[in-house]
Design brief:
The longest helix is centred in the middle third of the chain and has 20 residues. Strand 3, helix 1 and strand 4 form a beta-alpha-beta unit. Helix 2 crosses helix 8. This protein has an eight-stranded mixed beta sheet, with helices on both faces. It starts with 37 loop residues before the first strand and ends in a 14-residue tail after the last helix. The protein is globular, with a radius of gyration of 19 Å. By secondary structure, the protein is α/β, with parallel strands linked by helices.
Amino acid sequence: MFRLMRVDRVPNALVIPIALVCLLALSSAHAEYSTTAQTVWLDDQKVRYHLMGDAGAPVAIVLGGGPGFSSWNLEPVQHRLAELGYRTAIMDMLGVGENVIAGESPTGQALLDAWVDQIEALRRAMIDERPVVLLGHSWGALMALLYTRAHPDAVRRLVLLNPVDAERRAMRDVAEQIDRRRARELGESWDDERAWEQPMGGGDDPAATARHQIERSLPSYFRDYAQGQRYAERFDASDFSPRLNIEGWRAYRADPVDYAAIREWGIPIDVIGCRDDLLMPESLDSLQANLSLARVEVLTGCVHFPWEEVPGEFTEALRRSVSRPSGQETGNIPDY
């Protein structure tokens, strides 16, 4: 979703993917959470989160994209889980949106550790010691894996929505795909060399940089480019931290989740994705080559936000996943 820098052109450059797209906006009408915030303390930091569903129901926690983005745009997923009988929580990660930290946020591995601790504080506040269903969208899939690596006994099922794979294979060509799609949709000529040299925009202004990246990238994550442009208008600068985006990816690259470790957890893993996602088929190929997945749902008519693009089909896929007891295998692993 962002204007990515080509690693072989810029030494030590960090590829900022969008898996990521919980974004920031370009114009007016900023959307936000529709429910009242609940709070839990993490050391001396108050963490805000949002609940839907009946008290006492099984718990699901939904983790959004980025890293460094707000999560309010996942409310449609939260609604569907509540309708399916789950007590469901979403929240901004520390450093962004409702959970901005006074002063500097952690960096490097300390940042990922803080986010893992934040999820654990939320789980304990909701459900004590019982394990939860953990859903992660895009980068949120990696965040779900990072949390499970630290607390494997706290998770009873993982549902990965349009995920970035643990090896990040899907990120290799995303930047070029975004630029080509944008050029085609807007009638611009494509020049590979010139496109890779384009500045990221905004200079030292993080908000201006983010707007530049979103304007260029987010619409490419929708099958209907105009729908993507309208979607971007719902976000503003408070929804995104470019610095945390860079720090999160840098830290993950330094210590990725290992597939061998994932297999040792013995936790059922479902994947719901879109056939036309820019992360496909590489992400699914990587996951299927390394893991025995419980269920795979590949939807058509969408790119990266199936709850926005094909809400009916997405709801049914989610129902088939989370309505099954943990450990129930279906063998429904399609050929891509």
